[in-house]
Amino acid sequence: MSRPRRPDRNKLYELASQQAGYFSARQARESGFSGQLVSWHVHAGNFLRVRRGLYRLQRYPVSPQDHIIEAWLAAGPLAVVSHESALNLHGLSDVVPSAVHLVVPRSHRWVAGRVPSGVALHTTVRPLPTNAVATVGAVRVTTPARSIVDAADAGTAPDQILVAIREALNQGLTTPRELRTASGNRSARVRELVDRGIREAKAA
Description:
three-stranded antiparallel beta sheet; alpha+beta
């Protein structure tokens, strides 16, 4: 019989620090924390139970992105933060969306069941390609180019898209080629908006 895995406190705390202090029950298990040990830490005041299967380090500072990371973790490892929520995590927009945008497979449990309040789901038949997904800390998020195009396609105000394009290009987070490739199969409105954003960024 194999021995129980020894809890790796440093591993769990390092991961949680990349997720605004949050961690899932699955991540705790992968760090060697049994459900019983997690419950002990909750009662001891070290962990805060946010909801079923989701916890937070008790004394971790609050951040404006807490609600985004909480929804992403609750959705499970296949979810990807997208649209305006992704722009927020990338630091390309200060607009707080009315819902947390997540891309999930159509087989996701939330698709067939009740979507939690404050979450906007976008479904895909196939997983997003690797070149469309990045990480911010430990959070899986669509790349800046994909985030900008998705937000533009969903109707985010054009001035916000133009700001996001300028900031992404100025910070070296994307390139004109990546933006044009990402918008290649979108509507003429989105393509024209992306082209305008690129022209204005170059002229600035």
